[in-house]
Amino acid sequence: MRAVVLVLTVALVASQQINLVPEFAAGKTYVYKYEGLLLGGLPQEGLGKAGVKVSSKVLIRAEASTTFLLKLQDPQLFEYAGIWPQDSFSPAAKLLAALNAQLQIPIKFEYANGVVGKIYAPAGVSATVLNLYRGILNILQLNLKNTQNVYEMHEAGTHGVCKAHYMISEDAKTNQIIVRKSKDLTHCHERVIKDIGLAYAEKCAECQQRLQSLTGTATHTYIMKPSDAGAVVAEATVEELHQFSLFNTITGAAQMKAKQTLTLLEVQNTAIAPIGGDYAARGSLKYEFATEILQTPIQLLKINNAEAQIVEVLNHLATNNMDVVHEDAPLKFLQLVQLLRVATFEKIQTIWDQYKTKPVHRRWILDAVPVVGTPVALRFIEEKFHAGEFTTAEFTQALLVGLHMATADPAAIQHTARLALSPKIKAIPAVREVVMLGYGSMVAKHCAEAPACSPDLLKPIHDLAAEAISKADIFEVTLALKALGNAGHPASLKPIMKILPGFGAAAANMPMKVQVDAILALRNIAKKEPKMVQPVALQLFMDRTLHPEVRMVACIALVETKPSAALMTTVAGAMDKEPSMEVASFAYSYIKSLTRSMSPDLMNVAAAANVAIRMLCPKMDRLSYLSSTALHLDLYVSPVMVGAAGSAFIINDAATILPRAVVAKTRAYLAGAAADVLEVGVRTEGLQEALKRTPAGDENADRMTKIKHTLKALMNWKALPATQPLASIYVKLFGQEIAFANVDKTFIEQIIDQAVQTAKPRARELMKEAIKALQDGIAFQYTKPLLAAEIRRIIPTAVGVPMELGFYTAAVAAAAVNVKADITPRLPEQLETVSLDQFKNTDFQVKAEARPSAAIHTFAVIGVNTALIQAAVMAKGKVHTAVPGKMAVRADLPKGNFKVEVLPAATPDHVAAVSFETLAVARNIEDLPAERVASLAPAVASGAEPWIPASIQKTMCVTCPYFHVKGCVEVASRHAGFMGYNPLYYLVGQHKARISVARGDGPALERLEFEVHVGANAAEKLTRQNVVESEIQEENIILMKLREILEAGLKNKNSSSSSSSSSRSSRSSRLSRLSQSSSISSSRSASSSSSSSSSQMFRGNDTYGAFQKFHKDQYLMSHARSSSASSIETLQRKVKLLEDAVPAVLAVIARVVRSDRNVGYQLAAYLDKPTSRAQLVFFPIAEKWKVCADAVLPSQHKVSAKLGWGADCQDYSATVKAEAGVIESNPAARFEVAWEKLPSLLTLAAMHAQRAATEYLPLLKAARLAGFSLDKAENNKDKEVAFIIALPTQKSVNIIVRAPKMTLSKTNVAVPVAVPIEKDGRIPALENLDIRSTIQNLNIRDIFENLDIRGILKNVDFDAIKHKVLEYIEQFQNDIRAFMQDFDIRTINENAEIRAILEHPFVRAITENQYVRDIIQKADIRALAEQINLRAIFEKWLNYILA
Question: In Å, how far are 623, 1296, 1326, 1327 from 1322, measured between CA atoms?
Answer without folding.
Answer: 19, 22, 8, 7
